[in-house]
Design goal:
By secondary structure, this protein is of the alpha/beta class. 38% of the residues lie in helices and 16% in strands. Helix 5 links the parallel strand 5 and strand 6. Bound molecules: nicotinamide-adenine-dinucleotide and uridine-5'-diphosphate (2 copies). Residues 33-34, 36-40, 57-63, 83-85, 98-102, 106, 117, 121, 139, 141, 197, 199-200 line the site of nicotinamide-adenine-dinucleotide. Residues 87-89, 123-124, 127-128, 130-131 line the site of one uridine-5'-diphosphate. Residues 32-324 form the NAD(P)-binding domain. One of its GO terms (biological process) is D-xylose metabolic process. Keywords: Decarboxylase, Golgi apparatus, Lyase, Membrane, NAD, Transmembrane, Transmembrane helix. Belongs to the NAD(P)-dependent epimerase/dehydratase family. UDP-glucuronic acid decarboxylase subfamily.
Length: 343
């Protein structure tokens, strides 16, 4: 295996069986699991632009080749079709572990697979990190706070989560992934980082992933009514994807384990979000009310004081600035889709 030399085994506390970066070369070798997905593909772009060697591991459950096709042919980019539920042998310096469906529609589609991905997938990536002495970053979620009784949510809050509900495969799965991460750190000395990501939007989201921003934007472009679930008074805080990617890299490069909330504290009701989408896309857009899904958190807003203080990070792009950047991408893809159908 390239870069793997048994003769170094045991000589370097941080590099069991791995040729240290300083001897091999200065570029970092980085794995991004879920790198063909929405967030992962933007992260890969940033790492490649910085000069790193990147290996994407993805099973294409919700990821798309279109998100990374511009990197094919780049000698510093490699793609492995692989399911993280199965073990894998690689030699790298850092692991960004994103593989997991994130939209409620996707993660509820096969809940047992979702929990296997969160538990066995994270276990395998931690086992890998332990064997090669790589630094490991988990992308956890604001869903670990459940339907929160504390508002806004700080990292010290333990959450209010239903262990047997339809969202449990995801939120309990991520909670277990956080537990595994801390146990590999405490028990095996693995260098770990935990990010708790709040609702994020931007170009390359799946057009029909059922998440509220992608739904409203697709619906407004297609001149369909925007579907507001429940009374639309529930709140979320929406972060533009480049802010998140900056936060993930800042966390990986920092000396802090976390967990850190990474999100935009600007809080909107779904009715307010519909209004912003209407202003951005089509002033004649309408809304229709639909029944809400089970266990829907009533409100969610990150307290990001910890990330501001320790990572010197805060989001820069407001919802009104970020939405138009996503709309251009969605317009083009919806247009291509329609042309594909001969419309
Ligand atoms: P996404 O669905 O676009 O990307 C997930 C990627 O993981 C896809 O490419 C998918 O094919 C891949 N994947 C899923 N299961 C896999 C498996 N078993 N083996 C290999 N690959 C697998 O979602 P996203 O929005 O880019 O989310 C990325 C990460 O960030 C997820 O871990 C998610 O839980 C976390 N997160 C995202 C948000 C958000 O708002 N986008 C919020 C909180 C947390
Ligand atoms: N693992 C992996 N790649 C590696 C090392 C480990 O996929 O390079 C997997 C391994 O198959 C196991 C998991 O990670 O299922 C946990 O590994 P660890 O060594 O911590 O535990 P053990 O193998 O002793 O159960
Ligand atoms: N929602 C909505 N209309 C939609 C999709 C979602 O009103 O078409 C609501 C949903 O009930 C929830 C919020 O938007 O209160 C955010 O849902 P999403 O699925 O985007 O993410 P979540 O934060 O629930 O994981």
């Amino acid at each position: 295996v390239v870069g793997y030399d048994q003769s170094f085994k045991g000589k370097y506390p941080n590099g069991v069986g791995r040729v240290p970066v300083g001897i091999r070369n200065k570029r970092k070798r980085i794995v991004v699991t879920g790198g063909a997905g929405f967030v992962g593909s933007h992260l890969v772009d940033k790492l490649i632009a910085r000069g790193d060697d990147v290996i994407v591991i993805d099973n294409f459950f919700t990821g798309r080749k279109e998100n990374i096709v511009h990197l094919f042919g780049n000698p510093r980019f490699e793609l492995i079709r692989h399911d993280v539920v199965e073990p894998i042998l690689l030699e790298v310096d850092q692991i960004y572990h994103l593989a997991c469906p994130a939209s409620p529609v996707h993660y509820k589609y096969n809940p047992v697979k979702t929990i296997k991905t969160n538990v066995m997938g994270t276990l395998n990536m931690l086992g890998l990190a332990k064997r090669i002495g790589a630094r490991f970053l988990l992308t956890s979620t604001s869903e670990v706070y459940g339907d929160p009784l504390e508002h806004p949510q700080k990292e010290t809050y333990w959450g209010h989560v239903n262990p047997i509900g339809v969202r449990s495969c995801y939120d309990e799965g991520k909670r277990t992934a956080e537990t595994l991460t801390m146990d590999y750190h405490r028990g095996d000395g693995v260098e770990v980082r935990i990010a708790r990501i709040f609702n994020t939007y931007g170009p390359r989201m799946c057009l029909d992933d059922g998440r509220v921003v992608s739904n409203f934007v697709s619906q407004a472009i297609r001149k369909q009514p925007m579907t507001v679930y429940g009374d639309g008074k529930q709140t979320r805080s929406f972060q533009y994807v480049s802010d998140l990617v900056d936060g993930l890299v800042a966390l990986m490069e920092s000396e802090h384990i976390g967990p850190f909330n990474l999100g935009n504290p600007g809080e909107f009701t779904m009715l307010e979000l519909a209004e912003v989408v209407k202003e951005t896309i089509d002033s004649s857009a309408t809304i229709e009310f639909k029944e809400n899904t089970a266990d829907d958190p009533h409100k969610r807003k990150p307290d990001i004081t910890k990330a501001k203080d320790l990572l010197n990070w805060e989001p820069k792009i407001s919802l009104r600035e970020g939405l138009p950047l996503m709309v251009n991408d969605f317009r083009n893809r919806i247009l291509n889709e329609d042309e594909g159908k001969g419309n």
